[in-house]
Amino acid sequence: MKIAVRYFSKSGNTKKIAEAIASAVGVEAKDISSPLSEDVDILFLGSAPYAFDVDNAVKKFISDISVKVGKAVNFSTTAGIKSTRKYVEKFFAEKGIILAEEEFSCRGKFGIVHKNRPNDEDKKAAAEFAKKIVS
Ligand SMILES: Cc1cc2nc3c(=O)[nH]c(=O)nc-3n(C[C@H](O)[C@H](O)[C@H](O)COP(=O)(O)O)c2cc1C
After folding, report:
1. What does each of the 135 residues of the chain score in pLDDT, given as a tens digit?
2. 113 CA: nearest ligand 1 atom
3. CA distance 76 to 38
4. What is the CATH number of domain 3-134?
5. Cβ(110) to ligand 1 under 6 A?
6. Which numbered atom of ligand 1 lies nearest the CA of 52?
7. Which residue from 64, 77, 57, 83 is spatially nearest to 122, judged by alpha carbons?
8. Annotated domain spans of the chain
9. Whole-prediction pTM value?
10. Is 134 in the pocket of ligand 1 (CB under 6 A)?
């Protein structure tokens, strides 16, 4: 099974989760400046909300996908909302890429709020989630 992990992370929170997921499934986590270069069965895509949306770079990454993606799996770190799913789903739909119902999201440090998140427990939960998805 071919798996890719991509993330957008301004302050490093989502990157931590991306690395936990990637390590659990045996691939390298890359930021979204690395486009997908070959067909994949599963794309784990990580992002964080900034002022009630994801960064345009995340939308562009999805819109620019030029390979076949079996299914996409959203993951995110946030300070308040449940996940970034609602901000990315339209872009996957426009590409005809299935976005899995399953997703992973946890709190991410934001100023003095959610200090130390994501923590080791979050990373462990992300790794377990990823293993379940690929099993
Ligand atoms: C300018 C700014 C705007 C943010 N807006 C939101 C928001 O609308 N909703 C939310 O839940 N979190 C919001 N956050 C919190 C971040 O999404 C959260 O800290 C996330 O973990 C950052 O991930 P990153 O380090 O991977 O970029 C905001 C943070 C900043 C700095």
Report:
1. 999 999 999 999 999 999 999 999 999 999 999 999 999 999 999 999 999 999 999 999 999 999 999 999 999 999 999 999 999 999 999 999 999 999 999 999 999 999 999 999 999 999 999 999 999
2. 19
3. 24
4. 3.40.50.360
5. yes
6. 8
7. 77
8. 3-134
9. 0.98
10. no
Which of 15, 50, 77, 83 for a ligand 1 pocket mutation test, highest count of atoms within 8 Å of Cβ? 50
Of ligand 1's listed atoms, the one at least distance from the Cα of 81 is 11
